[in-house]
Amino acid sequence: MQAEAGDTLSRQTRKNLAQYDQFISSIEAKIAELPPGPLADRYHLALTFALAALSSERGAMQALFAAAMAEEAGFDLLRGERAERLSRAYHRLVLASDDALSDPKALELSIALYSFHMLAILFWLYDRSPKQAATRKLLTLTRELFKLLRSLFFLPMVPQGITKLAEILRPELTRASEGAAAHDDPRDGEHKDFNIHRD
Question: What string of pLDDT tens digits covers the 199 residues of the chain?
Fold first, then answer.
């Protein structure tokens, strides 16, 4: 678990954070044991597992994500160590797929997969449809979109678009989580090196 401003967090928030960090560990483990297959299918399995793993604590996660949106929250769910761990897991998913990409394209795509992962969670947390049926439809659509996207990687505009997305997102994902919003990032406007992973 990454460092938080623990003294300023409520007992319930600390509990919810611990549950969320356990959830990240379960995602890492699930991705490591995914069966062979195309990237889109493996990603769909990972997203479906992620939401199922959170479902029993949906109320707690709604409270946690809502609290995280405040600038004075003292913790971050979208960037820093948590983002690094999940994007690393998705990087491994890309590399181990039957239609794997090689780096740096695999690295850049893993940032996009992580971003869609977080968008899916946010959509699911807000989904008021019966039994979150809209989210299930969204995941099915996501699988079809990534099947199409992967099949079009031979077109220069597709990997170039993923590269631009990584350039935009990587500085935000790797910002230090505490106090980052209050300071300018010296990398802003100079996103030439956007490998999110540092082994």
Answer: 444 554 578 899 999 999 999 999 999 999 999 999 999 999 999 999 999 999 989 999 999 999 999 888 888 898 888 989 999 999 999 999 999 999 999 999 999 999 999 999 999 999 999 999 999 999 999 999 999 989 999 899 998 999 998 888 887 777 654 333 333 333 333 333 334 444 4
The model scores a pTM over 0.70 = yes
Q: Please, are residues 38 and 99 in contact by the beta-carbon 8 Å criterion?
A: yes
Secondary element (H or E) of residue 49: helix 39-55
Output the six-digit token pair for 192.
Answer: 């030439």
Note the CATH number of domain 9-180: 1.10.357
In terms of Cα–Cα distance, which of 159, 176, 191 is closest to 84?
Answer: 176
53, 163 contact by CB (below 8 A): no
Report the distance separating Cα 94 and Cα 90, nearest Å: 6
Output the six-digit token pair for 5: 């401003």
